[in-house]
Each structure stands twice: as structure tokens, then as C-alpha cells.
Here is the input.
Amino acid sequence: MASTLVKSVTDSNFEQEVLLSALPTLVDFWAEWCRPCQQLGPVLDEIASDFSDKIVVAKINVDNSPSVTAKYNIRGIPALLLFREGKLLGQTSGFMPKAKLLTFLDEYLNFIGVGQ
Here is the structure.
């Protein structure tokens, strides 16, 4: 079961939930049929729980949200895009363990060690 701290976003609420978010937002572009996406889920749940006061974690289903998926040229999933103040800071793709994801976040947000 996904963490209640991970937001579900769609084409209709992407701007409000991600681009206008007061906190940096990590968006996971995923699909139910994607095995690496399923494996990444628990890692994202941990990030959302460990750093709930520093970052928002959101998931957008590519099958149900074609407009945002096309806008950000998502060609493979899972794809992780990091936004702050409405701007795309960085992106990565594929499954990654928590330590690697924290390194990615640290590159843009000085994230490692925050809250630990």
C-alpha cells in the first residue's frame, strides 16, 4: 500500500499540486503494469515519510494523464522529475535504491542528512 504522504496527481491538478507547491516536488511518472515502477514505490514511500517537511512526493499515472506526460516528453518509465517553484530542476529515470535517489535529490536540494 502506498504511503498516504505520496500525492496522486493528474493532468487536471498537476499545476496546483506540483508547479504551485510551496515545497520542492519529486514527481514519479509511472504505470500499474511497469515492474520497475512497482519496485520504486516503497523507496518513494520512505522518502515521503522521512522528509515530509522538506519535499513533496507525487505520482502521476502516464496512462491516465497523457497531457502532462507529453509536455515533459516522458518516453520511458519510471521517470522522476524534480520541480521547485514551478521550474524543472532535474530528472532521472529507472529504478534506483534509496541511497541513489537521495544522491539525486542532494544534487539539487542539498538533501542528504536533512532530517536524519
Summary: The longest helix spans residues 35-50. The beta strands are 6-9, 25-30, 56-61, 79-84, 87-93. The chain has a mean pLDDT of 92.
